Every structure is written in structure tokens, then in C-alpha cells.
Amino acid sequence: MSYLFIANWKMRMHFNDAITYFKKNETELLALSTKHSLVVCPSFVALSPLIELAQNTHIHIGAQDCSPFKDGSHTGEVSAISLHEIGCDYCIVGHTERRIQFNETDESVAEKVIRLLENNIRPILCIGETETDTILTNTYAILERQLRSIFVALHAHKKQNEHFIIAYEPAWAIGTGVVPTHEYLTSIFAWLQSVVTKNLAYNSFQLIYGGSVDEKNCAQLKRIPFLQGFLIGGASANFAQFKAIV
Ligand code: PGA
């Protein structure tokens, strides 16, 4: 089975690091991309040069965020239109770090998804519960709320025949070295598969997992039914580790 591997470089890789990493490992990245789908998500400023370097290859370059607004007076924001113009074809939205550190709401995440679809950019929608949610057994209610706003927005904007990537990332697994148990993930992915199938009837989707994925745990994670790929943070910044995972 072919998997989707998304490297989320966050703000770990600065501009020069991103270009050097890509140039140094280009041949091996190319080889990996012939067997699996690879998306590399650097910071905004490194997007254009990486898109140019990855031109005519199977490696996709994605952004880590975009503005919920189309255009206008929004200092510091980057529009989905600009991302499309530079040739960016994927974009992460609703990452837990953005929801927590920048107070992103379900509604603004849904607006971002719509802006991306308007510009033919494939959204990588992140959802996930916090540690407190898990302790309070609120996980499914949180996931349901995060997804609901997307379903409502898609319906309101009559969006059909789109393809989504939905990344389940519990906040307590991100960058902690802690990965949910096989049973926990099996029930979450079965639930996601059923809820998303029901609500995205006219669209297609892939379910992926993120949170402390490394070369040791990914083989076991691949056994989770309905899991089709990975969103990889820390381990993707080290090429040897990323390659071992893929
Ligand atoms: P991590 O990050 O692999 O470092 O846990 C995953 C993510 O935040 O996307």
C-alpha cells in the first residue's frame, strides 16, 4: 500500500536550512517520491524556492497555514490566492499549535479550508483533542465539533468533488514522544472513517495520523485500519529519520 508522508517543518527549519536540506537530499527524496506521496511543508518564505526546485518531480510542496480572508487589510496574513500563484498545492490548516498558541477557532479554520478549495489547494485539516479533553473523555465531542464546522462550510459553499486530508493529531502526542495505544487509535480511525464518509459523501478524503511518529513506531501505526499516512514534525527535520520512516 502506498502511504502519504507529510513533513511539517514548523518554524524549526529557517530559510537557509530548508533550502540546504532539500538540495542535499534531493536525489533521495526523488527516489522516495516514486513509491509514496511526499509533501514537504516549509515556512512561507521557503515555499517559492522549494517549489522551483521540486518542479517536474513527484514531490509536493505545501504551506503550513493561510489566511481565512480572501484579500484586504490584514497585515501579516498570506492569502490562498498568493499560495496558488506561486504553485503551492497543499496547505496545513488548524494545526493544534495554531489553535492553542494563536487562538484559532473552528470557524476560522473552516474559512481557511474554503479559501484553499477556491484556489485548488488541497487542505490538510488537523484535528485533535487536548490532554484535558482525553481525561474528561471528551475526545469524540471535540473531534465532532472540529469536523462539524468544516461540513457546514462545505455545504454552505456547495463544495463537491474535492479531496481532503484529515490529520488526527492529539495535542498530547505532538512532540512528546507519546503515541496513543493501538486500541485508542483503532477506535478513533474507525469513528473518523464512518463520520467523514457520511458527511463528505460527494468528496474524497484520506485519514492520516500525526504526533511523535518516528522510525520505530510507524510500522505498528500502519496496522491501524483506515490510516493512510502520516504528518511528521520533529522526525522530518532530520533526513535520515524521515527516510527511515518512509
Ligand atoms: P511531531 O509533530 O511529529 O514532532 O510530534 C507532529 C505535528 O505537529 O504535525
Description:
With 246 residues, this protein is α/β, with parallel strands linked by helices. Helices cover 43% and strands 18% of the residues. The chain contains 10 helices and 8 strands. It has helices spanning 15-33, 44-53, 80-85, 96-101, 106-118, 131-135, 139-156, 182-199, 218-221, 239-245, and strands at residues 4-8, 37-41, 59-63, 90-93, 122-127, 163-168, 204-210, 227-232. An 8-stranded parallel β-barrel has the order 1-2-3-4-5-6-7-8, surrounded by 5 helices. Strand 1 (4-8), helix 1 and strand 2 form a beta-alpha-beta unit. It is globular and about 45 Å long. The relative contact order is 0.14. The mean pLDDT is 96. Bound molecules: 2-phosphoglycolic acid (PGA). 2-phosphoglycolic acid binds next to strand 8.
Shape: globular
Could you describe the largest sheet, including whether it forms a barrel?
Answer: 8 strands, parallel, barrel
Termini Cα gap: 12 Å
Report the C-alpha radius of gyration, rounded.
17 Å
Q: What is the residue-mean pLDDT, rounded to a whole number?
A: 96
Low-confidence stretches: none
Q: Briefly note the structural class of the backbone.
A: alpha/beta
| Number of E strands | 8
β content, as a range? 15-25%
Give the fraction of residues assigned to helices.
40-55%
Our count of helices gives: 10
Output the strand order for the largest sheet.
Answer: 1-2-3-4-5-6-7-8
Order of helices and strands: EHEHEHEHHEHHEHEHEH
Say which molecules are bound, naming each kind only once: 2-phosphoglycolic acid
In short:
With 246 residues, the protein is an alpha/beta fold. The protein has helices at 15-33, 44-53, 80-85, 96-101, 106-118, 131-135, 139-156, 182-199, 218-221, 239-245; strands at 4-8, 37-41, 59-63, 90-93, 122-127, 163-168, 204-210, 227-232. Helices cover 43% and strands 18% of the residues.
